[in-house]
Amino acid sequence: MKNVAFTLVMLPPHNDVRRHWAARIAADETGVRVLQPETTEEAVRDIAEADAAFGTMAPEVLAAARRLRWLQAPNAAPPAGFYYPELIAHPVVVTNFREIFNDHIGAHIMAFVLAFARGLHYYLPQQMRRQYAPRPLDTGVLHLPECTALILGVGGIGSEAARLCKAFGMRVIGIDGRRIGLGDGLDELHSSERLDDELPRADFVIMTIPHTPATEGLMHRERLRRMKQSAFLINIGRGMTVRLDDLVAALHAGEIAGAALDVFEIEPLPADHALWLAPNVLITPHTAGFGPYLDDRRLDIILDNCRRFAAGQPLRNVVDKAVWF
Fold it and tell me: Which of 29, 106, 117, 214 is in Cβ range 3.0-4.6 Å of 160 for a Cys bridge?
């Protein structure tokens, strides 16, 4: 029989994927004892002597934890409310699933960039109208080697977007409050305080930032007005970072050339929302992260962190709870 290294509680609700993860974790040579309470009441009971947990932890469950040191969040960027005051104040270390979407979302970003660069925001509506009407020669396209991409948030996804933009010959500027050093794809890197100064330089403003108290409503009417009239906004981070009413107004006023969004202040985006009919808009329904192998990547992170935790090593993807990422 394996020695028990520590106890991990898989918090409800459960599904087939999470039950599979629990079995894989329990079978690992690390020696993790895995508990799977079915209700919040059972979770309160089981968490009392647990060292670690996976999932969304209700305040009453946290209050019952006497030795909890690690919580694996179930998302790359959990929704608002996950980091409540008691969890932020608690000494428990929280980790997340960041990095698993880099390739999928990077490709989605480039799909938006290329669509705008080649005029698909004009031609897709024409297709719906069965209208064959090419624009005048050499108009309605962008030569990407002459374009600048401004990427807000240069973590894993932003870094992949920078690499892909650079592969198409673009100049790439990063805005990030925590990153140090340029890395692949970046020509420049600036602090968050420089955002207003850098916006007028960009042909594409690409937002990959999470929703935090500091980023909510970050892109509002005045910032949209700082962009070039020929520039495009792309948001695949979190919907709460862009004020949709301000974006619709800017699009109708011709203050920017277009916008592509995968995330929205309200999800699902209501059928009667004005954004649907705003000019030069591309919309996908929060699918930028879709792709194969995601559950395998999540399990790999959990297993890696279980082994690190048992060995007393630094955990992977540690979150700054005060800023939610």
Answer: 106
